[in-house]
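README: folding subset

This subset contains proteins for which both the sequence and a predicted structure token string are available. Records are stored as plain text. Below is the entry for phosphoglycolate phosphatase (222 residues), shown exactly as it appears on disk.
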Amino acid sequence: MRSVVFDLDGTLADTSADLLAAANACFTDMGLAAPLSAADAITAFAGGRAMLRLGSDRLALGWDEAAITTRYERLLEVYAEVIVNETRLYPGAVAAVERLRAEGIAAAVCTNKPVDLADVLLRRLGVRDLFAVVVGAGSLAVRKPDPAPLHHTLALMGGDRRRTVLIGDTITDRETGRNAGIPVTLVTFGPEGADVARHAPEALLDHYDDLDRIVAPFIGRP
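--- output ---
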């Protein structure tokens, strides 16, 4: 089966504002200042622990990994409450996935976001039914860039590795594809913008209107 696998945060949706709000709450509910701003979107897409480490450094808290893990649980609680306050799908994403499905191409999500939160987010955005499979942190014992989550995604959806492309936005996605032997397209509208070209993906995607043309060489014809 021809398939296109999407990362979620920074690829299908801009989730940075809600992620940063959840991270800041971990500091403000302790009576501290909110150390993170919209300029930290790249860190937001690196995960909750990355945001907490950055915030701790800025506030000179000196948190060790045990403290980070404790506050990370609080971050997840807050994030579940604010998950779609500011999050928006990138322009053209829904129409692009619908076009794939109309052509008999399966779509799935493979993310490092906790799988239950990924599922909730997609449902709250009204697009869960567009994706055959959602794999995330907790689906397996490892995360991207380990290739296992991507291989697991393909196994669940019945995808053919030789007719699959991964759409992502960071070096993590680039390395996941390389490790899995699957071509990668990186979006230029994510947190790194056009700078993602330095990761040398097989292709770049400037807008979802162009998705069909970009993925065609990698997934082939029916």
